[in-house]
Amino acid sequence: MKTKLSQKDFELLNTGRIEVDTSNPEYSYLFPNFDASESGVERDYVEAHIFDTSENFIENIIVDKKLITKDNNNKIIIKTGTLLRRAGYDRGRYIVKYNFLRKLAGDTTPILIDKDGLQFNEPIDTSANGTVTIESDGRIFTKTEVPKELFLKDNKYFLHEISDSRKEVRLVTQQIKNDKYLRDFFNLQKETKLIGSFGNEKSHLEFIDPTNAANNSDANSNTLKFIAPTAEPFRKNIIGGAIEIPNAFITRFEARSQLDDSTLGGGPDEEFYDSEDTSIFIPSFLLNLDSDKTETGTILANRDDNKFAKIKSKIIPGTSLQVFSRTRPTPSTEILRSMSTDMEGRATTLQRIMHSSLPNTNNTNRAFLDSAFGKFTIKTVKNKKITLSSNSTLRDVGRTYRWTIGGYERNRKHKTTLGVKHSYYWSYTQLTKSNVTIEPHAEGGVNGLSFQGDASQAKDLVITINNNGCFLDISLEIELEEGSRFTESIFLPRAISTKASNVK
After folding, report:
1. Alpha-carbon torsion 216, 220, 226, 227, what sign?
2. Taking the domains of the chain in order of start, what are their residue ranges?
3. 153-182, pLDDT tens digit by residue?
4. What is the distance between the alpha carbons of residues 457 and 453, in angstroms, rounded to a whole number?
5. Can you give the pTM of this predicted structure?
């Protein structure tokens, strides 16, 4: 079978095909709609290959755009009979195969260059008063005071090398010093491209209202138009791509939380990655209710709040708490953490929060957290496996998780006189690893009541509470990138508890 390629090139290239699903949105930028109209800016065209009935290649020609139409269903129609007659095939039977092509670089039209590689850009006119003359031997000269010889060159690039895998080719340019020729070649290997009109003060981006909707000013639009009188137009293959605006100005920050959208109810069902806005990070975790994560029958109360939405709504800056029958502003996370570790303390911070001297001896840090958050705790059964899973809004980067458990164990005690029990009271002790068992990953990472690891190791925290009367304060800290330290965290006081100890 004949082709317009050399036999060597044909054998090198004819090594199989890689099929790409053109309907896949991932590749939509590669396959914008074909446009061979005379006004089309995509430089799309159709190449017709003519064969005899034995499929021997005869020649190829570029289809005149006037012979190409589209019906209402966007179906392309080509007048093959007219095409053959114009090409001089008035009689006989032929096979015509069409290639639908898009010019990325080069062109099917030859160009004239001088000995220095500079393109002759004037109209080709061989008349008496024209721009060039053609000698009897075929040589071409300019009609200037000092005639300059011109050389006819294909507006193409050389196939210099093909990789051993046959998946890559190396192209090289000819000795043609033309800006467009060289720029198109350069852009072939670029994934991103700058389109602009540098140095032109009239070039800019502006917001427009393409719908011209009533009472909708351009200032409120999210549609951008590029104004560049001297720049080349945008091409369709940028549809589905991304636009980057460097050196933009931040005018304000908006606080975001997992509860901004009531449908979240304490966050999504699992972690997700915000690829569009990598500046937003929302740390969060939930009690995983999957049967293989948390044992059946473990939760006794507040099962419908496994995302801890009620507690999360109370720790948002600017909110308030009901504490000791008073409404008081929510302390910072740092203060809440200190209250958890210093249970019996009555620091001046607590007094400032309450706006009182707190004469009642029961008004301790522990009591404060109990009063503010104890009613929202998820009550569970001891000695059953519980899994906490991160459902944070994360940047899709390498990250490290660190879980820390605090809180206390409450036991009912009494005094005994002459064998008679009396004066019952509650005893409070800080949680230890004897109260809560953390199930380690195969690679370890457990240190007392702290557990640390990467996403494959510590995205989930598996624990067993070994005693009744335990109240757990849980912290999740996340290091977004190696070396960035644990800058993102969430702390939920009184998140989980086991039922009260029996009176003994």
Report:
1. positive
2. 32-102, 111-153, 256-504
3. 888 888 888 888 887 888 888 888 877 778
4. 5
5. 0.49
